[in-house]
User: Fold this.
Amino acid sequence: MFGACLLNRPAVRAGRMCRRQLLATAHGIGKAQFSTSIHPKTKFYVTQPIFYVNSEPHIGHFYTMVLSDTIKRFADLCGKTTKLSSGTDEHGQKIQQAADLANEPPLDFCTRYSDKFRSLAVAANTSATDFIRTTSDDHHTAVRKFWQRLVDGGFIYKGEHSGWYAVSDEAYYTSTQVEERVNDKGESGMYAIESGKRVEWVSEVNYKFRMSVFGERLLKWIEENPSVIYPAVRRNEVLGWLRMGLEDLSVSRPRNRQQWGISVPGDSDHTIYVWVDALINYLTVDGFAQSDVLPFFPPNVQVVGKDIVRFHAVYWPALLMAANLPLPRRILAHAHWTMGAQKMSKSIGNVADPFVDIERFGVDALRYFIVRNGGIADDGDYSNDEVIVRYKKDLVGQLANLAARCLSERLGADLNVFARIGREQLDHAEPGDIALRDMLVALPDRVHVLFEQGEFGRGLALVFDALAVANKHVTENEPWLIVKQAPVPERLQVVLFYSLEAVRLASIMLLPVMPIKAAHLLDHLDITDNERMWTDARFGAGWQPLDRLRQSKPGVAQLFPKLE
Assistant:
């Protein structure tokens, strides 16, 4: 590999670096070529993978958007200054072919589909701070700048490449990563084992990245940072690939095979490999085209689907190492969605349209379902029936029901005595209240740990378990009977406090997932905007005296209307 023919002048000069020099650079020895701004603990950068614009957005895209948005909103709730990047990946042979098939110029085709993903981001109520298109001038500048640094570092050379290439994946595969199969039409061919996509044999002269010299450093990075790739099953996959050894990566295609993309600087006969182009978007959105000082980079969390782990956990960090840039702090690789336990497919007709389901169930209800049932390690199964079950059982049956029962005018909850009751209950609670009190005291920390891991579904399960106990508690204590006693005992307000404290805590913890409905619930409890941070999600910490009386608002029962 190191002895391949070096044809362009910058690459020839870089190629004359000896193996010892290359390994020294690969192992982080030597002066960094970039500086990043000091990364304060208050800053938090989340990335979505940019979406390929060759088809309509589907429920999997919605899941990725909402999961990354939930992470960003959770960081907001914890007082961070946040950045969330989104966008569309618009180069490559696959896009070129799709545009030709649609009889459209490639840029017009890309714009049409990019607008659909942007519309989904709005419909999903995501809070992305950046939406990047890889066809933008800024991104082209950033890619060329990054490429030149790889050349200057001696990590790019030109040589012969022969191997398997999947146009659908825009990915190269080794002989051990493909197998012969017979498709549904009875046709025999070679397919990528990992993705199941058809591959073709290509032989071409192109540019290569000396990825092989980074294998040892990548292994050390992952082994010394056990949580950098989550979940563990994805981490183990990556470790397995690295232990098998890395080959150098082909990072360009001949221009006569792939016209739609960014030209290699100084060689217009070659187009930069679409995955190298795409990965650099995470730098572009932080101003890399204009400056070496990056306000948010590296990302705190990079959300990806499990099918693109190799690109983000092997290619991307190796490229960053070569450029002397800091590595992602965490890569969260979520699982996929099936329908009826089958992979979603247009040909089968089991693809869910997120726009239709947002209209049917409401955006917050669908966000809740997708985060609660979505898989991190294992695939989730999507069905309208399951969305309805979650809607009726959790959102209506537990959350809204508890709030509505205890905010009825007939019971007369006095929110202005709850701060005192909360303090008193921490010191002393009745035997029948202790279990619920202790559960609510422990709940925020337990949920926080899971949310920080990205295990939002498990964290939400704890929240709704607590709401179920709170519902049972109010049923057993029968405040509708206590209120009939004369004089009405203090016990009534204690019972109502426990129920509405459970709703308050749950609503704050639900803000990252259901930002609209959770905020409305807090409005009904007259919890002000500056009382809605994670630090406020502590038992008895709410309900502090204001410069006015707190007054609950009616109509909570209509928060989740009946589904048609």
Confidence is low (pLDDT under 50) at residues 1-17, 29-38. The chain is about 45% helix and 15% strand.
